[in-house]
């Protein structure tokens, strides 16, 4: 069970970093605030749900990424 959690966390983290690389615009090589918020939300959601099985971890990561990305996008638009 612990091995499955490790695999799930590794997959979630690596996919968040890979998708964050696509979020750059122009010559800016850094991550956008929306991508950073989504990555942080995915990590937090996965950690919060880490007591369950791998499906719970994945659901937590997806929910966290959605909330984190949306929150960071809204903050970017209001500045």
TrEMBL record:
<protein>
    <recommendedName>
        <fullName>YMGG-like Gly-zipper domain-containing protein</fullName>
    </recommendedName>
</protein>
<keyword id="KW-0732">Signal</keyword>
<feature type="signal peptide">
    <location>
        <begin position="1"/>
        <end position="20"/>
    </location>
</feature>
